[in-house]
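Chains adopt folds. We examine one example:
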Amino acid sequence: MGRRPLPRPDGGRGPRRRKLILAAAAAVNLALLAYFKYRSFFFSSMDGLFGLLGMDEPLPALRVLLPMGVSFYTFAGISYAVDVYRGTIRPARSVLHYLAWATLSPYLMAGPIIRYGHPGAQLERAQQQRFRLSLVGSGLFFLAMGLAKKALVADTTAAYLNQLFVGYPLRAHLGLESRPGIHTAAPLRLLGILGQGRRVAFMIGLRFPQNFSSPYKAVNPSGFWRHWHMSLSSWLRDYLFIPLGGSRGTTLMTVRNLLVTFLLAGLWHDPAWAFVF
């Protein structure tokens, strides 16, 4: 079965069949994401709503372990189906080849959200490439540097900040005192952990897209957004914001599209209302 070709959203007998295959692929991925990541969020939100209405009986909740990387490979699967449907990429040669791309362990740890056009073609070429020890050496060096930034600098600074905020009442001077630490710990933690997937992929000859590009150096919110979690921002732009209409309609429609995009961006990071409001 692994060598059989996948159903192709671009290869149906007509537009209706193509759309059905695309809709089924998107529905399966979104259903997996909703069940594993947002099930508890849904039940807790409904419990809170029922509590406001005077109904104190909690809803039954099933405890299920969250699979590693579910947020990444579901979005990757949707982008694959859409890109094949649009004709922007060639479909995977087989189910086995698709699974080899979709389950690449480096990006499942902390991203980025990959598209088949990035490492998919590289995997095809990798079958003819020879093992290169130099890539492993370089990857190990950058891997160690990333861990050092996180463990030696970011974690140490975060521990100081925790003591600062826990040990003293909140005062205005604490904001000024903690600002250098926050702007030191946050970017180094991003560089140290969220870039490790790219470094591991580099060791096996794959090039993942950059996910963060010094967002704390931005001089305005739009610049920060363009350099923060770039794979998620571009995914939401290409597969949600633009299909909804982007900024081509009225001002009201543009505001609606932006609100929907930012709402889903917040919920993607964490299933909690704190990431929405």
